[in-house]
Amino acid sequence: MRLTADHIIEVIATYYGVRVEALRSESRARTVSEARLFVYGLCRDLTELSLPEIGAALNRDHSTVRLGLLSLSQKIRRRPALAERFYKCRQLVLTS
Q: I need a labelling partner for 18 at 20 to 30 A (CA). Which of 25, 26, 45, 59 fits?
């Protein structure tokens, strides 16, 4: 099965208990923001989508995605619990 941004978005929204629309919205709520960063990272890791394509899936500009990916990699290095959640989500995406 070929993974799509929509599939990743749905799995992450379910995991975080947020609506897909929230991930595509302007919301800066912590839960939504973290979930959105995970979508950026998983789309980059598991698909061949470009930054503009990832951004389009979430109503974001490619530069926002780029900065989000940088932020995610820094946070994963500093916060083991976040890294654990990210890899758990990765497995959920791959197995669903």
A: 45
